Amino acid sequence: MVSLGSWIAVGVVAAASIVGGAEAWAQSRNLWLLNGQSTITSGYFYRGENIWAKCDVDCYDVDLVLYDANGRVVDADELRDDYPIVQAPYEGNFSVKVIMYNCTHPAGCAVSVDSDYGF
Prior knowledge:
Blueprint lengths: L3 H7 L3 E6 L2 E6 L1 E5 L4 E8 L4 E6 L3 E9 L5 E5 L7 E3 L4 E12 L5 E7 L4
Antiparallel strand pairs: 1-2, 3-10, 4-9, 5-8, 5-10, 6-7, 6-9
């Protein structure tokens, strides 16, 4: 069981990675969403790169929708689960909409969004 305090203590996690021979800083997005709330974050992703979300014990359904630079939906995971995953169809800038469909805690739920190479 993950406590609220440990989610807050995690903050923004940063890790160095090597991408294409150059050093890049990978970092997940840590969000706090109320039931029914959504937010959009963006990043540069490589072709075939997986983008996923996971949430705390009070969350039962969180969804991801991946938009290209022109605002078109290119992938979505709207299954009833707490670990959605989408994939970039090509290299470029994308927006990721994170939708909290089922959070049972009245104060909201912690959601972490990350990808194979980080945002």
